[in-house]
Amino acid sequence: MKTTFSTTWKNSTQPRKQRKYRHNAPLHIKKKFLGGHLCKELRTQHKIRTIGIKKGDKVKVMRGKHKGKTGSVEKVSVQHTKIYIQGLDFKKRDGSRSLYPLEPSNIMIMELNLEDKKRMKTIQSESKTTQAKPKKTEEKASEPREKPKTTEKKESEQKKTSGTTKVETKPVKKTEEKKEN
Fold first, then answer.
1. Nearest of 108, 99, 121 to residue 58 by alpha carbon
2. 65 Cβ partners below 8 Å, 6+ apart?
């Protein structure tokens, strides 16, 4: 099987090809997998649902062994698509402590680290695009729909022929012929 990255794997419905796509993806695509959901307060405030997780964000673990625990993001590994939270660690066999790796899908962002000006701009630009979309759908929903003219013709034709509907049948020929000996 091909081991170099291909964008055609993204279109596949086979789970093995989806895993392969995520595993062999280059770093600029793996960065997109590191997004986390915002809590309800941040979602209403910024009008976006997800954003990339950065070092310094305050997060809450939603699934797994450490469910319900909160802490700030200590490290983000793009290569392994894992997030490491301060205070969530485990003891190794040699006695040293190591941070516990978590999937970004199992985390909810409680507070954003807005020290980065570039990140603030992306939040504002994303919120503007989400505001523009609902207005278009509201206009379409408020307008009454008209019936197409073609259906009216079909209905009038059905009314005319409703009393005199005939079913045409073709005569069936018998294929069995008597053979004369």
1. 108
2. 100
Report pTM.
0.67
Q: What is the pLDDT of residues 56-108, one digit of tens each?
A: 999 999 999 999 999 999 999 999 999 999 999 999 999 999 999 999 999 99
Range of the domain at 20: 1-33
Local structure of 10: helix, strand or coil = helix
Looking at the domain assignment, is residue 148 inside a domain?
A: no
Q: Report the distance separating Cα 56 and Cα 68, nearest Å.
A: 18
Q: Which amino acid is at 103?
A: E
* Chain center to CA of 128: 20
Domain identity same for 104 and 46: yes
Closest to 50 measured CA to CA, from 32, 73, 69: 32
Tens of pLDDT, residues 141-153:
566 666 666 655 5
Looking at the structure, do residues 17 and 41 belong to the same domain, yes or no? no
| Residue showing tokens 């009008």 | 47
Report which of 62, 61, 59, 91 is spatially closest to residue 73, judged by C-alpha positions. Answer: 59
Asked whether 79 and 31 are in contact (CB, 8 A), the reply is no
How many domains in the chain? 2
Please choose, from the candidates 8, 6, 12, 11, the residue with its C-alpha nearest in 3D space to the C-alpha of residue 25. Answer: 6
Query: Same domain, yes or no, for 57 and 109?
Result: yes
